[in-house]
Structure formats: structure tokens, C-alpha cells
Amino acid sequence: MKLRALVIDDSRVMRNMVMDSLCKTGIADFEFTEAGDGGEAISKFDPDQIDIAFVDWNMPGLNGLEFARHVRSLRWARHVPLIMITSESAEGKKQDAYDKARITCYITKPFTVETMRRALVPIVYEMVHRHDHDAKPAPTAAPAAKPGGGFFSKLIKG
Amino acid sequence: MDAVKRAVLATFAVICGAEPSCETDLREEICHDGMVGIISFVGDHSWCLMLGLPRETTTRLAIAFAGFEIPIDSPDMGDVIGELANVLAGHVSARLEEVGLKAQMSLPTVARGQNVELLLPHALPTRRMPFSSVQGKFWVKVLMARSH
Predict the structure, then answer these.
(1) Which of A14, A60, A90 minimises the CB distance to B83?
(2) Is the CB of residue B56 less than 8 Å away from at least one CB of chain A?
(3) In this predicted structure, what is the pLDDT of residue B144?
(4) Cα distances (angstroms) measured from residue B25 to each of A5, A158, B29, B140
(5) Nearest by CB to A89, which of B68, B80, B94?
(6) Which of A29, A77, A111, B50 has CB atoms 3.0–4.6 Å from B141's, for a disulfide?
(7) CB contact, 8 Å: B43 with chain A?
């Protein structure tokens, strides 16, 4: 599965680490767009060209929380998963990100490839499920039972 | 201080692959050769956290954190040390919030060089904690500026 990801962090090293970790999860074939701050991210963000965004919180200029709030204010972009990857590990901060910016998922630094993978599996599953649902015509009869052990079942169990 | 120490041990356990140990030798060199990451906090208390890495530790820790080699005099190394200070500060902040002390973190400032001397405000309480890790020695210093 191909995923077009926007990676936003003022640190070039961190952007490389995020992209490297995402590739190592094996969840998808990622195509990356990078941004060094929230302002640049807004200029590069197009919900028709970006499937998912990974955003740092503390950045000069427009920070990650402000970027996320901006994206969520766009009716046509609300479906895009926003993953916050940040050093802010306090529960209050985490709750702020979910409540005020309606981010999809919160990962604290330092993270491992496994942390990233476990966070992304349900998100990507939901994306595929929504894509398949949108693409299918409405069923006129009960669908046939699918055999168990599909890709995502194995991924979640694994 | 206990919150800072626990944050250091937990954070660097993930980065280094093993928990660092606290050193007992508290002697401090006036001048530092390597890199220092500095983060300030403003909130219920105003304070400052400094992470000092000697030259040898800097390069080894950068590989452990970033996964690739980074020249010590490159801008990327400034990124790495800033991120390390940031990550540590985030964990300290979380532990302090658990006991009701809230604070806002600044963006990190990073200094690099030989004979770097940190000139801190006089008569403010400071505490220096030396550590030893697989990647080498490092220290963390906390300066308490003001309580609101």
C-alpha cells in the first residue's frame, strides 16, 4: 500500500529518523514530503496529495499544535490522520493535543520502530477500511463471510 | 532533583540501550570540551536544564540516538543535542506535572566548542549530576531561577 506522508519537524535529523522508522515498520510504501515548521507544512499540505501527516509540537514560528488545529478547521481535510511525534510527554499536554487539535495519535520521543508500528497499524487499517467502503457500491445482499487471517489481522497479531 | 534523575535514567535507558549509572565524583571542570544543550522552563517555577556531553560521548550518543554517524562540527549535531535536551526536558516536565508543577519548555539552545564556560547567575541554587553510560560520561545541571 502506498502512503503519501508529510513529515514536519524543525530538526532535519529528526525528520530522517521518523522517515527511516516509518520505512522500517513495513506497514506501507511511503512517499515523503518534508517541512521544517508549521508554516511550511501548511503551504505543502494538500489533502488530495497527502494521506497522513507526522508533526512535531515545539517548532519555531507556527508550532505543531497550531498546524494540527489549522488542518482540523478545514472541512475537506478532517479525514487526514495527524500523528504528533513530540518530546512533550506530560499527560496534560497529550490531552491538549487530543482535545484542542483533535490529533489522531500521540507518540513521545524517543520512540522505537515497534512503537511506531503499533501506533500506525490501527490507523492504516482504518484508512484502508474507509477507502474500501467508499469505493464499494452499496451491498444489495448480505456479503459472503471472508476467510480469517487477512493482512491486517496478521499485522495486528504480529 | 529526584524527578530529574529518574527522567535521565529512563530517557537514556531507551536511547543508550541500557540505563546509565549515577557517578559519585561531583568535581566539576570549569571549562567543558564538547556540547551543551540548554532548555529553560517558565511556569510555577522558572528553571533551567543543561545537558553536557564531552566530545567523545557526543559522537557515540549521536549514533545511538539517530542511528547514523554525524560529524561533531556539523549543524546536524546541533540538531541531535537539541533533540536530546528536548526529550530529557519533556520527561522531566511530565514528572513535575504529576506532582502539580506545570511549566512551559523553551526551544533548545546548543553550544559547542572547547573551553566552553557556562556563566550562570550568581547565588541561585544549582545541582550538577554526573552520569556514566555505554556511550560515555555526561552530566545534567539544573538551575532554579524563581518560584512563583
Answers:
(1) A14
(2) no
(3) 82
(4) 48, 46, 11, 13
(5) B94
(6) B50
(7) no
Nearest to A13 among B15, B80, B102 (CB): B80
The answer, yes or no, to whether residue A145 has pLDDT greater than 60, is no
Summarised one tens digit per residue, pLDDT across range B41-80 is 888 778 899 999 999 899 999 998 888 889 999 989 999 9
Q: Do A90 and B93 touch (CB under 8 A)?
A: yes
Distance to chain A for B105, nearest Cα, Å: 9
Per-residue pLDDT tens digits for A114-138: 999 999 999 999 888 877 666 555 5
Name the helix (H) or strand (E) containing B119.
Answer: none
Rounded Cα–Cα distance for residues B87 and A109 (Å): 6
Give chain A's mean pLDDT.
85
Model confidence at A142: pLDDT above 60: no
Measured distance CA(A35)–CA(A131) in Å, rounded? 26
Cα angle B41, B8, B131 (rounded to 5 degrees) comes to 120
Indicate the length of chain A as a whole number.
158
B8 interfaces chain A, CB cutoff of 8 Å: no
B90 closest CB neighbour out of A14, A17, A89? A89
Contacts of B41 (CB under 8 A, 6+ apart): B47, B48, B49, B89, B93, B103, B104, B105, B106
* pTM of the entire predicted model: 0.81
Distances (CA, A) of A136 to A74, A143, A144: 26, 12, 14
**Element spanning A16, H or E:** helix A12-25
Q: Residue B125 is placed in which grid cell?
A: 541554587
Distance in Å, alpha carbon of B71 to nearest chain A alpha carbon: 12
| pLDDT confidence band for B148 (50 / 70 / 90) | low
What does the pLDDT read at residue A134?
63
